[in-house]
Amino acid sequence: MEAQSQEVAALLRKIAGLHAAIAKLPSLSTSPEVVALFTELVDVAKLGPEEEQRMRAELVRLCSDAEARLEERYSDEVAAADRPLDHLGRFPYLRSYVRLSYLEHGMLARYAPGLASPARVAFVGSGPLPLGSLVLAARHMPCALFDGYDRCGAASDRARRLVRTVAAAAGGGEDVGVGARMSFRTTDVTDLQARDLAVYDVVFLAAAVGGATAAEKAVVVAHLGRHMAAGAALVVRSALCAVVEPEVVSRAGFDVLAMCHPDDEGINSVILARKAANGPRRNGNTPAPHVVSSPCGCSKADASARPRGGKGGVRKRPPRSCQLDAINETRRRAW
What we know:
Elements: H1 2-23, H2 32-45, H3 49-80, H4 84-88, H5 94-111, E1 120-124, H6 131-140, E2 145-150, H7 153-170, E3 182-186, H8 194-197, E4 202-205, H9 214-227, E5 233-238, H10 246-251, E6 254-260, E7 269-275, E8 290-292, H11 326-332
Helix pairs in contact: 1-2, 3-7, 5-6
Family: Belongs to the nicotianamine synthase (NAS)-like family.
Catalytic activity: 3 S-adenosyl-L-methionine = nicotianamine + 3 S-methyl-5'-thioadenosine + 3 H(+)
Protein name: Nicotianamine synthase
């Protein structure tokens, strides 16, 4: 692992060095120096598909491992802190979780309104720092029972400890039951059967679940399609490392209702789908999904969001709560 990491780092340094050297050239007119630099750049670019895919997979794995270590660190620190809510607010990507959950719930409310206030929710890939579940439970789904699934037992243990700590810190607020509404289980998603998955109204699939390739993610989506209840919603988070196409979700037996690609600092695309009653569509006649904007880019809403009559109006910006500092909102909701 260390040798591979060093190889990747060396390649990045090589590319960065070539970029810096070429940018500093006084002229791009042909000269021995210009020819030599661009020859080096071409040699780097000529890496074969196998080398490219190997390095890409290694970079994705390294990023995933680093993210896991970051979440483990903050989960442990929050659970041990005297003022855990203050410490939770220091997590560098908390705002991204808040924005993403706002987007996901907004998509449910608009395109699957009967499922925006679910009774039972599964979050597959909850990890050691289950901020997605916490934000959804506290801010958007106040009556839902949440089951977090992760194949790592240590991650599930950390998640349980964190939720207990945060709930205790809330101290008797109306939503102190958030902790009571959340449980965490250790298992691989592909080991879950219909008896496990059919009880959920909504299933969230974390971006990191299923490995580094689109093909691996497709296997997970297909498994969910075989075992989720008809009419249940699937919310698929898709990251830069492994993009999930709507066709993959449709082939798994879902009607794709809407999708959103980030047009801000977010890196997660979201696909909202509903389990079809009749299984996969084999003729390819899948209705085109709605394409929606990111949470705080609502002025760029699609045409269906404009008022009837069509002149000039655009959809209103979201409530100010999506702009609030997340930890202040947490206190206001009295976890």
